[in-house]
Amino acid sequence: MGIRSKLLWPIVIAFAVLVAVIHFYFVPRWLDTARDAALRHEHEILSAMETGMVQDLLRGDLAAIYATLNDQIDNRRGAWAWLELRNASGKRLYPLRPRPRPTGEYLVTLDHVLEWDEATVAHVSLVADLEVEYLAALAQMRGIEQVVLVVLFILLAVGLWLQARWVRRPLLRLQQAADQVAEGHFEVDLPPAARDEIGRLTQAFDLMRRNLQATQQVLIDARQEAEQASLAKSEFLSRMSHELRTPLNAILGFAQLMELEARDPRDREFTAEIIKAGDHLLELIDEVLDLARIEAGRAELVVAEVEARRLCEESLVLVRSLARERGIRLVTRIDAAVGTRVRVDDTRFKQVLLNLLSNAIKYNRRNGSVVLACEPAASGRLRFSVSDTGKGLDPIQQRRLFSPFDRLGAEKGAEQGTGIGLVIAKRLIEEMGGEIGCQSHAGQGSTFWVEVDTVLPSDHQDDSGPDAAVGGTPDSVAADASPATLLYIEDNPTNLHLVRRIIEQRSCYCLLSAAQAEQGLALARQHQPDLILMDISLPDMDGFTALAKLRTWPETQDIPVIAVSANAMPGDVARGQAAGFATYLTKPIDVTSLLETISVVLSEGEGGAKQSSERGRSHCCPTKY
Predict the structure, then answer these.
(1) pLDDT above 90 covers what percent of the chain?
(2) What is the Cα–Cα distance from 576 to 582, expressed in whole angstroms?
(3) In the chain, helix, strand, coil percent, each to 5?
(4) pLDDT greater than 70 at residue 204
(5) pLDDT at 531
(6) Fewest CB within 10 A of the end CB: N or C in the chain?
(7) CA 300 to CA 281: how far, in whole Å?
(8) pLDDT of 51-79, one tens digit each?
(9) Rounded to an integer, what distance in angstroms lies between the CA atom of residue 104 and that of residue 77?
(10) What is the per-residue pLDDT for 68?
């Protein structure tokens, strides 16, 4: 029911009640009053007539009595319907012949006693017809009723008009304004602020509107600042990653070359320490950046159905060499994982398992054991648990377990670490809808567990285990092939020198180099190399633009290009893969990985690049232009 109906119904009901009161209360009272007045009038006439009749009755002058009564009846013709006079003994004196007493709706009987000296002389009975007086009074009342109804209708119409102007229209405008404000439009048309309740309501609404508008503006400004801060943080993280990886590329790259070329055991020991420290610094950089991305809500997870057994086996493969070095025995109890699929992000979940397994190995006792188990949890999920035989954790350490950069006293030991691996693991598992925890007793080892949701096994299997056939990775191109020509476009002289020294490890490669993108593109068109290594952040043109230009020229469109960049954020890698790079390598460069990647890319493109090889491999040129 709208406001108009709510305001109209009380007025209509009041109008109907007023009409009913007039018709059923005042009209009958008015008619009764008119009847009483008519009766009083007839009583007065009768009383005046009786005063003269008393003397005639005492004298016995019946003729005079008859004359008086007949004259009065003639004068009141129509009003007096019947009259009878009897003496004190009850004898009828008038009329001479008996007449029946009439009855009717408007007939009223009046009885008078004529007395003289307190003695009864006669009795007079009169039947008066009040129809005329009643109908006249009724007609007058109907007229008054009609006038009252007309006046009430006019008042009703005026009231409705005033109601619409003073109440309904302002409220409708307020309603429309409220709807607009609810949709976020704060510039609204409000009714004039009158000095009444609606006016005060309008003022309060306007104040609320202005406060909401100011609050929204504050929120918009805050959101913009947050977005700008997020963008600035992302830019900072990306830039820091790039700036830190660039010098690490030279440190770790040349250290790996020194390790390969060192003959003195002490030199190899020193080089190994450099590589170990560099790897630790690189791990710290990666984990800090990873934690920053997760806390900023930019952890890119692809949750899908993954075979639980494959996750366990692939994770174990990656830690077997570490366990072998430490003398740790790996035990698996993953029968519950067979045929079971879980909803996780494949890469991120293996990252969590690897963190738990590597911690269990590193902080274990010598010749200890690590058990990787899978079992159904009480919650209906699948629980992955990693148990070790290390020192264990006391209750205070367990409360600090997932605090960033808190290594729980392990920083005093020989093992290196960052103290944020478990923090990242916890955030990732929670992002995947799972749960992570720990059970430990000091001196008895620890068990870290992860619970994730399971799904019903499907009929198809799209996951391949570690036992799946994998093509061999050649160390080099065929011995009888001519040297492959490589082009490296890099503006940093140190990085360029490093890659040159790495390529020298293979006699089957011939390296061309350029410090700028335009120079590199010219060399590519001139020599048509078998493979191009390209930095992304070049001074005159970024690597993506250079790649796009290579794809527009017939002589270079089929040459595979490997990105080698210090831009190692996940978005950078994804963008490089989408742009069409054969692969995307991040700095610091791993010497073995770089050589294997070059060999694999050349082998994959051998069929399509045969013509290019015939054109370009004869150009075994100096290593710098």
Answers:
(1) 14
(2) 9
(3) 55, 15, 30
(4) yes
(5) 94
(6) N
(7) 24
(8) 878 888 888 888 888 888 888 888 887 78
(9) 17
(10) 86
Residues whose CB falls within 8 Å of the CB of residue 250, separated by 6 or more in sequence, listed in order: 494, 495, 498
Residue pair 608/555 in contact by the 8 Å Cβ criterion: no
Sheet strands side by side (includes 80-87): 92-94, 80-87, 119-129, 107-116
Residue 542 to residue 521: CA distance in whole angstroms = 12
What is the token pair recorded at 145?
């009723």
- With beta carbons less than 8 A apart as the criterion, state whether 85 and 92 touch: yes
Rounded CA separation 269/282 (Å):
20
Backbone CA torsion sign across 342, 343, 344, 346: positive
Residue 256 has pLDDT above 70, yes or no: yes
Condensed to tens digits (0 to 9), the pLDDT of residues 375-404 reads 998 888 999 999 999 888 888 888 877 776
DSSP string of 287-343?
HHHHHHHHHTT-----EEEEEHHHHHHHHHHHHHHHHHHHTPEEEEE-GGGTT-EEE
The confidence band for 249, taking pLDDT boundaries of 50, 70 and 90, is: confident
Q: Quick check: 93 and 62 in contact, CB under 8 A?
A: yes
Place of tokens 């989408």: 578
What is the 3 state secondary structure string of 311-322? Answer: HHHHHHHHHHHH
Angle, alpha carbons 166-171-173 (nearest 5°): 105
454 contacts 380 by C-beta, under 8 angstroms: yes
- Burial of 152 per CB tally in 10 Å (0-12, 13-18, 19+): middle
Q: Cα separations (Å) of 122 from 76, 88, 98?
A: 21, 5, 17
**CA 272 → CA 267, 469, 502, distances in Å?**
8, 34, 18
Contact between 149 and 141 under an 8 Å Cβ cutoff? The reply is no
394-421 burial code (b ≥16 CB/10 A, e <16): eeebbeebbeeebbbebeeeeebbbbbb
In the block, which residue shows the tokens 């008066």? 128
Mean pLDDT, the chain, integer: 81
- Cα 53 to chain centroid distance, Å, stands at 106
Instruction: Please choose, from the candidates 422, 417, 302, the residue with its C-alpha nearest in 3D space to the C-alpha of residue 351.
Output: 422
Which residues lie closer than 8 Å to 242 by C-beta, 6 or more apart? Answer: 537, 565, 566, 567, 568
According to the model, what pLDDT value does residue 100 have? Answer: 85
CA 73 – CA 301 distance, rounded (Å)? 118
Assess whether pLDDT exceeds 70 at residue 476. Answer: no
CA atoms within 13 A on the CB side of 81: 17
**How far is residue 424's CA from residue 355's CA, in Å, rounded to a whole number?**
10
Q: Which residue has the tokens 């805050």?
A: 222
* Paired tokens of 516: 């700028």
Q: Which residues contact 176 (CB under 8 A, 6 or more apart)?
A: 188, 189
What tokens were used for 170? Answer: 């302002």
Taking the C-alpha atoms of residue 65 and residue 425, their distance in angstroms, rounded to an integer, is 133
